[in-house]
Amino acid sequence: MALETTVFTFKISVPFAEWAKGFDSPEAEQMHKAKGITPLYRGVSKDDPESVVVIHQGEEGAALKMFEGARPIAEASGHIWESTVITSYLPG
Where are the domains of the chain? Predict the structure, then answer.
């Protein structure tokens, strides 16, 4: 399988620092590791404090599969599920 970079953009309902605590938690780190996914970047829009971007890298389809299974955890952290836009990239 190919290495895929997946970009998630979405809105949050809590301050970014609060959302980031969950994303940076040991439990999230363990989940990423178990799924073979490397978080490359996470940040908040400088123009909109409710807009977040997360970039993951892993085997093709792995980040999307993990995301689909993590809805309760994501929503509990303040992630507004319906706002999510996912774009995936393969090496050229």
Answer: 3-89
Does the pTM surpass 0.90? The reply is yes
Instruction: Read off the tokens for 47.
Output: 């123009």
Q: Does the domain at residues 3-89 carry the CATH identifier 3.30.70.100?
A: yes
Give which of 62, 60, 73 is closest to 34, Cα–Cα.
Answer: 62
33 CB-near residues (< 8 Å, 6+ apart): none
How far is residue 69's CA from residue 52's CA, in Å, rounded to a whole number?
20
The tens digit of pLDDT for each residue in 26-35 reads 999 999 999 9
Report the SS3 class of residue 74: helix
What angle separates helix 26-35 from helix 62-69, to the nearest 10 degrees? 130
